[in-house]
Write a structure and sequence with these properties.
The structure is a single chain. The chain is mainly β. The chain is built from one helix and eight strands. Strands 1, 4, 5, 7 and 8 form a five-stranded mixed β-sheet that branches.
Length: about 110
């Protein structure tokens, strides 16, 4: 039996304000960070890594399927981000920790 996983995020996630200065690194994404549903456990793009607190070092770049255990995944470690577009609101502690690591947070543009 072959297993497939349909990736739902895009090359440039909707929370990324600019690809200029966008730095990503591979990290081990633990299964405990995932959300279960439809028989799969997924860590969503935009999830603060490793936690939404003072330990924050980045943001998971693309959805990661951790159904069968921890997996390597891309973590954005420096970027310009629309924080209102992240799937979960940043805690004050996480935002401060990420800003210290080179993140810049922008308001999502409203047109019209």
């Amino acid at each position: 039996m072959s297993l497939t996983y349909k990736k739902t995020s895009t090359v440039n996630p909707n929370w990324l304000a600019s690809a200029t200065g966008w730095v990503k690194k591979t990290h081990n994404i633990p299964q405990s960070m995932g959300e279960s549903g439809s028989g799969m456990t997924i860590v969503k793009s935009g999830t603060v890594y490793p936690a939404n607190d003072t330990t924050a070092i980045g943001i998971v770049t693309e959805d990661v399927d951790v159904t069968y255990g921890d997996k390597p995944g891309s973590v954005t470690i420096q970027a310009r981000v629309y924080d209102a577009q992240l799937p979960v609101a940043l805690s004050t502690e996480a935002k401060t920790a990420l800003e210290a690591k080179g993140f810049h947070f922008d308001k999502y543009p409203v047109f019209g």
